[in-house]
């Protein structure tokens, strides 16, 4: 199709031209003496993004799913009890992985569209007098429903019960896009991936690990090889990897981090909120529809899942947007398949790019007979964007 493809799934996101260019590099010997000049600053700078001074950040040649697996395998033993909530496809898949690795999961099932329930976590931890629960899992941003959960209340629930379990956070679609504070929130294992807020292709699992979690690797009996922290620690100490790293991706990561720091992390978060808020104005004020997140406190600044009216199939909106308007919208997954389509608003993005996606979604909705006023979505969003400044938007 002529013209630009509009990529608006919540990851992979648009890769900025200069990041893409940095990945176009001749192959190099990954053991050459210059490699540490690239890698050691990357490790140090990733700690700034994760907001950890005391933890260590690993880069695995994998996707976010590999990051989940590394966090579990390096800290747990078969049969260990894990406490986790499920309120969307990704929180579900992490629980599924725990089970497949032989862990014993206490599941907090929640309505899709709601977020992690601190009080239910606390209740379960209070009951666990013998401290059999070794891991507490939370998905900070449930990409399937567009729900963000505050992490601090979960840490507070653990502390209130003086529970020694480790805190594991899925930050795949939140870290580098919305606020994340590994040290302040007492997060022991923080998992992210390259293809969302980091504005890179998929291919790197980026995992932050606290000293407490690193210590735990000595008792962790789950089998592991590729994802072994031990091998990474040894090789990373001098700036190398236990196996062949993807150097083009690491060169891209260098430029992506430079961009994040040049904009300023807090400005990046404010921009994401500003863009998300405009999208929500389009949905509510323009289209008179709703997002899947049940309450304002859970609305995600990286992705909005838009609920189509009863009797319509959201998959058709996605199909028309793709085939007719060259626009990729995110699909509804599992329980919300056919009920929602998603607009990813994270990564390298501005108002006018998002206005294109809102317009395309609106045209596709009208094409299948959904009665939305033409121009209403982009009208509501653009008026908001025009008047609100990103820094002010943060407080809204
Ligand atoms: C919240 C969340 N967790 C985990 C994953 C899995 O990551 P990956 O697809 O990179 O393995 C995703 C992917 O979209 C996600 O959104």
Rg (C-alpha, Å): 21 Å
- Average pLDDT for all residues: 97
Largest sheet: 7 strands, mixed
Give the helices and strands as they follow along the chain: EHHEHEHEHEEEHEEEHHHHEEHEEHHH
Overall outline = globular
Quaternary structure state of the chains depicted: single chain
* Ligands bound, unique: pyridoxal-5'-phosphate
Indicate the proportion of strand residues: 15-25%
Calculate the terminal CA-CA distance, rounded to whole Å.
Answer: 39 Å
**Number of continuous helical runs:** 14
Spans of 5+ residues with little confidence (pLDDT < 50)? none
Instruction: Describe the strand arrangement of the main beta sheet, using strand numbers.
Output: 2-10-9-8-5-3-4
Q: Class by helix and strand content?
A: alpha/beta
Can you give the helix content as a percent range?
40-55%
The total beta strand count reads 14
């Amino acid at each position: 199709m002529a013209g630009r493809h509009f990529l608006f799934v919540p990851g992979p996101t648009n890769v900025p031209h200069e990041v893409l260019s940095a990945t176009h590099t001749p192959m190099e010997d990954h053991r050459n003496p210059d490699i540490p000049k690239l890698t050691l600053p990357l490790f140090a700078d990733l700690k700034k993004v994760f907001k950890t001074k005391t933890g260590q950040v690993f880069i695995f040649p994998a996707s976010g799913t590999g990051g989940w697996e590394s966090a579990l395998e390096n800290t747990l033993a078969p049969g260990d009890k894990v406490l986790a909530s499920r309120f969307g496809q990704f929180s579900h898949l992490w629980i599924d992985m725990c089970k497949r690795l032989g862990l014993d999961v206490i599941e907090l099932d929640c309505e899709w569209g709601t977020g992690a329930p601190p009080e239910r976590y606390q209740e379960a931890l209070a009951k666990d007098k013998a401290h059999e629960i070794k891991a507490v899992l939370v998905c900070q941003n449930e990409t399937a429903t567009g729900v963000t959960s505050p992490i601090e209340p979960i840490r507070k629930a653990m502390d209130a019960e003086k529970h020694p379990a480790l805190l594991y956070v899925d930050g795949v679609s939140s870290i580098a896009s919305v606020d994340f504070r590994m040290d302040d929130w007492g997060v022991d294992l923080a998992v992210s991936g390259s293809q969302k807020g980091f504005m890179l292709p998929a291919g790197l699992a980026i995992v932050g690990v606290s000293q407490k979690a690193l210590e735990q690797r000595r008792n962790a009996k789950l089998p592991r090889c590729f994802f072994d922290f031990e091998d990474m620690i040894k090789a990373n100490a001098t700036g190398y990897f236990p196996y062949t790293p993807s150097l083009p991706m690491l060169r891209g990561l260098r430029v992506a981090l430079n961009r994040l720091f040049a904009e300023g992390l807090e400005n990046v978060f404010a921009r994401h909120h500003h863009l998300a808020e405009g999208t929500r104005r389009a949905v509510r004020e323009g289209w008179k529809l709703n997002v899947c997140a049940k309450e304002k406190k859970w609305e995600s600044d990286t992705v909005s899942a838009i609920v189509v009216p009863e009797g319509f199939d959201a998959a058709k909106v996605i199909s028309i947007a793709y085939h007719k308007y060259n626009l990729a919208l995110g699909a509804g997954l599992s329980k919300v398949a056919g009920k929602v389509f998603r607009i990813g608003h994270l990564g390298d993005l501005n108002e006018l790019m998002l206005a294109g996606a809102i317009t395309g979604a609106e045209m596709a909705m009208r094409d299948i007979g959904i009665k939305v006023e033409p121009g209403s979505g982009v009208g509501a969003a653009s008026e908001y964007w025009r008047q609100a400044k990103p820094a002010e938007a943060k407080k809204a």
